[in-house]
């Protein structure tokens, strides 16, 4: 097996650039970090290009390298250089970013989560993971929302990107297309005049829009929705964390 | 106004120790960091001992220093030394930790969140904030759960510790006391044989127990609950984030 020991190796330099949005766009790939993610990517037959392991990685024998993918040993210092985490597990993979141009709003079904300018990678990843758990079909990363394959988002999605359709696109055409098909598009706002979230029934085909952590949803988009929802705050907290609010709404709105 | 410019100042050394559990226990105080928290502590009349500000803090004129509290200027380097955040806002406060020995499970009302060995400070703080929003009355930090006044927890509670009763205690006597008063105690487990969470009605007086991120609730405690609940996973995610699960459960179970 090929061994790379230097962070100055040209391949390591190229991989390292996948930690930036620019690098991911240019190469059309992203990094998986950790055994859970690499194993799940193998299981769901993602287009893995290379798997990188430390020589003493304890699950080395369990790695079923997909056809066409490479397996390369990298030393401790290289793992640390590539990994965004404090305590890397000693296994990573380079995966091709799926083509998404073919996903059109007119052709999709089920429940969709639209993110409008959501900023925090942990919140975004947790929302994707929760959407997966709630049985959603896909996510649209709207304008201003952090990049899907940001390492922190990838970590907190915990592999749910393999289970859902992932689209990066402006939300407006998606909102219009859903409405044209008579699928409700629910906006959210911290406004007691909006409709309480538990009074709109359960739905099979719909979209839920979550907004920015500090400022909420874009005002123009709020005007385009079918209905805007509100989670009543009973106590004295000023608001809910956006990922918690998204979880409450997704599990409330989705028909099983 | 007194100005402290050195991190070697004895008062700064004492404050700095409040970033550790040992220091907080010894001094019986903790640190608030940022304008939102300091302002909320003033508004809710917390026992503030000292407010520390940078000379150029933009809300300096708005600070209503409580009677008996000190106001001290600290320089940039001192703020950076004391703050746990990357971008401190230039205002902090030292607050006395409330006496909690007087809160007995026999004497409380309403909905309570019990935390069993929850580890991540961000999850813990978010759960406290959500409990506040859902109209809960108090929180019990059970064995193994990170310390309430950990700086990261304080940051993510966003002041909700001022609105709720906060107790650190073993959970078993609290479970027994609630049950003795015929208040349901709901455990949680990732087990499809447990009761679906949306089939147990809404309650005014009850407890909800959330467990460890990786291992769930303690097996012995699961046997002592009134009933254990499960959030059905519809998609392919293995689990929900504990703070998201807690939010879904608290809003589902709490009678308004």
TrEMBL record, chains A, B:
Keywords: Methyltransferase, Transferase. It comes from the Bacteria. One of its GO terms (biological process) is methylation. Residues 31-101 form the RNA 2-O ribose methyltransferase substrate binding domain. CDD domains: SpoU-like_rRNA-MTase. One of its GO terms (molecular function) is RNA methyltransferase activity. GO terms for cellular component: cytoplasm. Belongs to the class IV-like SAM-binding methyltransferase superfamily. RNA methyltransferase TrmH family. This is 23S rRNA methyltransferase. It comes from Ligilactobacillus araffinosus DSM 20653.
